Queue: 3 jobs
Job 1
Amino acid sequence: GKPVVAVIGRPNVGKSTLFNVIAGDSISIVKDTPGVTRDRIYADCNWLDMNFTLIDTGGIEPESTDIILSQMRQQAQIAIDNADVIIFMTDVRQGLVDADLKVADMLRRSGKTVVLAVNKVDSIQKFGNDVYEFYNMGIGDPMPISAASRLGIGDLLDAVCSHF
Ligand code: GDP
Ligand code: MG
């Protein structure tokens, strides 16, 4: 079948914004059992001559750090189990935080293909240098993007599709 690409990361890093930019109108929602996992949103996407299924994880906004951590582990596990390529998204404005490192550990141990996107780089002049710290996670080269301003999306999709 078509390759599956999942977007994972902490709440508020911009996963759904990226998903909507890539997916446009072709969105379908699959509800999970309440309280077990979150709703996942799927879309059939094209980039150049490539077709793939994109999954937006997340949807519930957790209140406590404990819940954020456990939900991120769950997301990462769902992505590891179901996706061929994982877009791991971080936020340049919040910088590298402990929760990012925990997910990076899981992803590294899984051996899955990961593309690391550093979002909210709305200006390379302003935020470009802050991207470098994400190399410290040891899961590959961080790719600066701005989902809101649609910057770096083509390069990101090239990187994702190079793994199909
Ligand atoms: P999610 O929780 O990871 O799905 O994040 P959302 O896509 O819901 O975005 C969270 C917030 O970040 C929203 O207020 C978005 O408008 C904002 N956001 C998303 N992408 C960008 C970006 O590239 N730059 C900036 N400055 N804000 C962004
Ligand atoms: Mg979201």
Job 2
Amino acid sequence: MTRVEGRVKVTGLATYAAEYPVEGVTYAYPVQSHIAKGRVTRVDTSRALDMPGVLGVLSIEDPPELAEDADAELALFQSRDVAYRGQLIAAAVADTYENARAAADAVRVSYEPADHDVSLRADHPGLYRPEVVNPNYPADTEQGDVEAGLAEAATTVDVTYTTPVLHNNPMEPHAALAVWAGDGRLLVYDSAQGASLDRDTIAKTLSLPPNRVRVVSRHVGGGFGSKGTTRPHAVLAALAARAVGRPVKVALTRQQMFDVTGYRTPTIQRLRLGADADGRLTALEHVAYEQSSTLVEFAEQTATPARVMYAAPALRTAHRLVRLDVATPSWMRAPGECPGMYALESAMDELAYAAGLDPVELRIRNEPQTEPESGLPFSSRNLVACLREGARRFGWDRRDPAPGVRREGEWLVGTGVAASTYPARRVPSKAVACVRNGDFLVQVAATDIGTGARTALTRIAADTLGVAPDRVHVELGDSDLPDAPVAGGSMGLASWGSAVVGACEELMKNGTEGRADTTGEIATDTRLARHAFGAQFAEVRVSAVTGEVRVSRLLGVFAAGHIVDATLARSQFIGGMTMGLGMALMEETHTDEEFGGFLRRDLAQYHVPACADVQHIEAMWLEEQDERLNPMGSKGIGEIGIVGTAAAIGNAVHHATGHRVRDLPITPAKIL
Ligand code: MOS
């Protein structure tokens, strides 16, 4: 199937949040903090209010009414305390975008600054163990005796990897358009990953019952996690519209996005591995250090993949967090699993070299029978099959393991492998299916963030109803439709699709309408470990002259349950792998130690891969039937593509050069 909304997208007819034509629309432009910590002593709005077209200025001097228990990142203009540089501390509202921006510029803010601390360090005195890590895992786990396992090992590695702050950078910047209707109901067109959740959060923040708020997100130009939770721009639009009595649009600039739409926490990760003479793990320890803000605790589940991946008689994972004067980190594609697997899979490569074993073979030797931490059986796993199939397709058996010995002119050539994993989740969702004009209408408040969700749901409904896909019309992206979870956590299609199947089956039974309200579990459910797996192979060429790394080949082989649509799935996988390439070689946001906040706040300096950076990329999958997941037998594929890619590339760089870079991104300066 081609994308059902493909035509409206390429002809420019697809309407995004900032584009809805609304009568009498006005614009709000934020004023951001210039200090990283301290207090706002005064916001002088007098000059701004005199400027042309200005309708008002919102600030702490006249705090808008908000729920007392609002999320601290969304509690706009409620406190004089500054938590990070770039925080929204005021906003000007005017008849045009330009007038609002000029007025925001004319707002004078006085501060009482305090000393800030924005640096994550593994020896930071403020580090603590969070109660749980996202979404609700224990922060620390331990079984067996790691010290004893390391002491008896024939080979050990003790290595530390670091990853930088990363920013999501979807193509469509965050934007919201808020309209208060005559009946007091609030309509927000928001670029968001989940209309139902966004509605609930906006309603809670404004102390409104959820049925007084409607969120519409029919088309969304990417999110990658940054639109998964409500962002301050949406609350600002609603508050400003309430204050001036007219619709208000807030469209963030790319630079503003770097400050207020979340980011991936930097990590410091220490791995200690021990293996016996046969390469079987005797101990595995993964400790992750991360940051959050002083406002909200966001504890990323970085070390959790180590609880899933390999059999080890002694296994310890731990997370330590420090609250800094920074914005709160948030979700970024495969939050936790992605940086965690970068470190674990790089360390496994180091262990393979230390033990004199092939890195594919090392992983196969440590394949567990059940999920290592929980002891639960896997619903399906197939990691070994992915490794074997990938090795066969990639030509791995011809590989000379010696690092730093293949040279073609100025180019050093190497190959690397890493495993991937991501949880296969499913949560409650509702859906309705009915007959309309002889065709079928399916309604669910799902969101298509560019992944092709609309198309996949059309296909699922058509398959269930036994009709051609062009007779099915799917309506989504509107919180007035049946409640549905976010497009996130790689669980969208599994959750929405289950409800759509249920609604379509119901419709077939009674002939006019079907409703489903799925719980997220299925009848045959037993306690199982549910994850997707994959194997990533990379070939790199490293210039001995400039240190430039080119990725000449990437191959991903995945075991992700039933693949609902091959074209869409391939795009998801190679999209994820391309982001992994960016993570390995390019992407990095610098924290400004002196002033707080971030440096490199645009796409000229925050580099993401372009087509020319992706020379040969291939994604494929094993046929996997796993009926204990959901009616489709599918596992999520939104995020697993990025997991492991950076490790495969880093491992290939080591194989090419003989040099191990343990600090991402692998830029030329770190190679030479
Ligand atoms: Mo994805 S980071 O779960 O939106």
Job 3
Amino acid sequence: MLLYHDQIKKRSAVNIDIEDRAYQFGDGVYEVIRIYNKKPFYLDAHLDRFVRSSTAIKIELPYPIQQLKQLLLQLIEQAQLETGNIYLQISRGVAPRSHAFPGTIQPVVIAYPQNTNRPISALNEGVCAITTPDIRWLRCDIKSLNLLGACLAKQEAIEREAQEAILIRDGYVTEGSSTNIFVVHNQTLYTHPANHLILNGVTRSIVLNLADKLCISTKESAISEDALESAEECFMTSTNMEICPIVQINDKKVGTGRPGIMAKQLQEAFEHLIGK
Ligand code: PLP
């Protein structure tokens, strides 16, 4: 089952046009929304960001956001999705190929469910990461379909037998290829400020809130590549990876080489949220 425009249909009943601008220009935005126990997790925060991203690239939703919310809830129900995610995308629409925006066209909305389990072993054991230059554009705050910079970085990580690439711009950590990065230095939790150089993750905001509740001192301030090397702890956050410890960066252990205390504390608090 999937959502196409404002209807829930079988996948086989949907045809995507070869002149859809998502396909030719990456001209659209998207969201990935986690489903736990048949319920969407922080759906409103994802839909707010979806509206912010589409407004930033001048795509107007074809119907009210409340209607989209109802359709997504229907899709989750009909798909009987227990644990997984919903991929949601809007493209500017279909028009003969030309860079400038066409006149009035109908945006194309699609959403479909995916069955994916929680990454339990990565959460418990941690993962390895590499660092690589951040070659992406200067509007990383928009959740754009243009993901080539992220794909190249992730592929480099995989080829170097790591799971994530930590991106470095002008000597500072921005974020991961598909995650936000947190670093513990002198008992303070650092993450890049939510500006045009990163995607302001829904999980990132949850973690900053949980840290406050746990009286962990936080700073939204970019950390240098040098400081990253001497980090006491490092972890990445995203809808799919939750709060995942990074235990090795570029062949060097982070701290003891085991998931850190702050990551564990935050993971525990996060589990409570999921259970609610
Ligand atoms: N940063 C980037 C570049 C991402 O692609 C993602 C998720 O896809 C995130 C951060 C994490 O965002 P969220 O926690 O909303 O999934």
